[in-house]
Amino acid sequence: MKLIFEQSVPGRQGFRFPDSDVGVKAAVAPKYLRQAALAWPEVSELDVVRHFTRLSQLNFSVDANIYPLGSCTMKYNPKFTEKAAAMPGFADLHPLLPQLKGGERYVQGALEVLYDTQRWLGEITGMKAFTLQPLAGAHGELTGIMLMAAYHKAQGNRKKYIIVPDSAHGTNPASAAVAGYQIISVPSDRKGGMDIDKLRAVLTDEVAGLMMTCPDTHGVFNSRIAEIAQLVHSVDGLMYYDGANLNATLGRCRPGDVGFDVVHLNLHKTFGTPHGGGGPGSGPVGVTGKLAKFLPVSRVVKRPDGVYALDYDQPDSIGYIASFYGNFGIILRAYAYMLMLGGDGLKATSDHAVLNANYLMHRLKKHYQIAFDRICMHECLFSAAKQAEAGVHAIDIAKFLIDQGIHPPTVYFPLTVKEAVMIEPTETESRQTLDLFAEAMIRADALAKADPDAFHAFPRTMPISRPDETKAARDMNVNFFASRA
Amino acid sequence: MNPYIANTPEDVRAMLDVIGVDSIDALFADIKPEHAPLSFDLPAGLSEFEVMERLRRLAARNTGALVPFIGGGYYDHYVPAACGAIMSRGEFYTAYTPYQPECSQGTLQALFEYQSGICTLTGMDAANASLYDGGTALYEAMMMALRITRRQKIIMDGGVSPIYRKLIRSYTHNLHIDLVETPVVHGQTDRAAVAGLLDKDTAAVIVQNPNFFGAIDDHADIAQQAHAAGALLVASVYPVSLGLLKTPAEMGVDIATGEGQSLGLPLNFGGPYLGFMAVRKALIRQMPGRIVGETVDAQGRRCFVNTLQAREQHIRREKATSNICTNAALCAIQAAVFMSLLGREGFRRLAQLNLDKAEFARQTLEAIPGVSVKRSSPTFNEFAVHLPRDAADVVEAMIPRGFAAGFPLGRYYAGMDHYLLVAVTEKRTQDEIRAYAAALAEVLA
Q1: Domain that holds residue B377
Q2: Is B413 on the interface with A (CB under 8 A)?
């Protein structure tokens, strides 16, 4: 498809501003003015709408396709929450209003949304206090690690290391590193859980904490979690819960009850807010009582007179970690989602997410090598190692699925399993859709045996075939105008 | 219950049979009974229309239609309807990071267009596919400068947003970084202060244009000095001003960042917003976040992919250029729609309207007895007004009169209690500005 810049026609306009009604023509001294012409396109509104509508049609999406991307929780995003977020009383609200004198009066509705969301997330996770400020999961991780650092500093301890299991998301070690820590990686045992002996071997007084995803990216809930927490606490380390997989355990287990001290959640996973083609997300962070005083400012509080307010008077706080109160538009959608589902609905979410994943695991286990043969949680992990022997790799199976109208599962992650194929169906898919997916996977396996070479041509039904990624990295053509200069 | 679950009781039974267990509970056997929730006390679920009704009531508890003269980096610009319409397409908003390029060309091409649009806006060579917001983008730029120069000192201009400065203070608290700030001056960057601090340990000088007080500057001389000292110049810029003003590239800036809210996004009470970052060509491989690149498919057709992924956390883990994963892709796509709709001429007109209306407001406000506006540096669409009384009290008195009158600078600056930061966008009419001035005169009388 042509780029929007290639559709430009000199003199064409897509949006007209009214003439100025103030009768003043202001000028800035020439030394402050731009010389280079702006090269945004000259196109009509219809050109723009048609262009972006057509572009959108080149995407797979949850609205149109099953999207069982492991560890991403691509569930259905309810439509009414979009409408809620667009209400002018919320969408047009300026973030500095509550910072005016007595300003909380002007934003009581918005603050109530934030306050109740904090409270409910606290109840869901068993955490004492929450901040909704982190703007995505990784931002929540960074915030969480900063809170841990503040705790250790207040204790007068010098800690250098954060322990991360080898099955963790890449954001875990990256976030801890950005916060100034060194990383110790701990391998998994043969059942997919963390190797506790190996953990013991690296635990010292210099360990600030352990970051765990629970259930982990193997889809395994570590039944020795309380023991692990005890071990980490024995060196005054803190337990960090990566909430990427919370969709498995709503109403079944709360991180706060099994020894976690800090959690981050991904509202765009568990709480039904859209993924937006890669964001915006929202990554609230919850803590136990001993860490609450370190939370970022501002804190959303309810005063005894029932008025919601922003509290900036927190002397032990780590300070500002976001410009304002978080991705309010996303938080509002999650709030609406929780209101609709209630406690029972949330628990049912995990029940069916886990049911769907186990069903797929059993439908596929005869055809694909199962990574860990046990009950899984909300996602099941396979290896395409058997197919790879015939020359059909996980990526080839992914491309086959695209031709079936299916967004592929996560492939090559976690890094602990060769040819990993990680499937997370979520609770919103029906048995019939899961069957269609399973049958496509089974056909892929059959074709891998019958005609492995056929896979090189997949996908065939898309506007493009496989891209040359090496060329992309080598040429670094990331700007239309640079390549034409 | 949960209306988004499709399985019927019959489905559940059939599925349990395939799995070979007799209940859903059996699937949770790894969670020991003693690990069950101590409490899970949440409200009962509601129907869609009950939730919507509750939200409508909550929205009504926020202040109604105040005429906004408040900015501080976040502005009441008009959002064309087509922006919202495109953003509401499920094909965009219910997709995820384009890990599979063949079925994600829509997102990828839109992001490539966004990156290109940011490049021509800033004059820089390459942009990433978005960061969270303007504040965190500036933080990422600072981290990038530390990495590139392997130095430890950052000089932050006092004109940088106090919110951004607080944020960067928290992030650097545990790192071994020497973060020094030049004194806050009302107008342009304090040249002498920067020169006095710049040395061989300096990784970057960070400036903002226009700065928090609205002052326009040309930082070309600071770029030269920074480069002579082996440091980088990082600038946070306000995109709408670039419809008219000198680009970061023209000043010699190495890393340009900014808040993209004014490129077609609603104010949203603080987010989601859009952080943008654009750099000189030599720095591309040090840039954080996703980058979309052009390539060809097996048939030689042009297409787009996430590229240079070896910088990123999912490959490099603790050695990545940043921990960022999810960014603000949908907001970036909305910005691409905005850029396309306005085009070069529409955007220039938008910038000129902001400039003209702000100038008109400045003249109108100055005519009020006791009100003065500092004129030593040029401003764009925001300026600081000196009032004869505490600005916070004045703003409070203006609310019942229907105006969000501006941002009292005493909130962030000691000794500036009488200063009010006033923003005037293209949406403000002559009538509104006159009514605002009349109400202000009344409050001050």
Answers
A1: 67-77+345-444
A2: no
CB interface of A with B, residues 103-162, below 8 Å: 105-110, 112-113, 120, 123-124, 126, 135-139, 141-142, 146, 149, 153
CB pair distance less than 8 Å for B173 and A146: yes
Chain-chain contact of A38 with B243 (C-beta, under 8 angstroms) = yes
CB contact under 8 A, A275 and B96: yes
pLDDT in tens, B34-79: 999 999 999 999 999 999 999 999 999 998 789 999 999 999 999 9
CA dihedral over B122, B126, B130, B134, signed as positive or negative: negative
| Contact list, A186 vs chain B (CB under 8 Å) | none
Q: What is the pLDDT of residues A429-474, one digit of tens each?
A: 999 999 999 999 999 999 999 999 999 999 999 999 999 999 999 9
Say yes or no for a CB contact (<8 Å) between A481 and B407. no
Q: In terms of domains, do B193 and B293 share one?
A: yes
Q: Domains of chain A: which residue ranges?
A: 4-22+30-56, 83-340, 349-471
Interface pTM, i.e. ipTM: 0.97
- Asked if the A83-340 domain carries CATH number 3.30.70.20, the reply is no
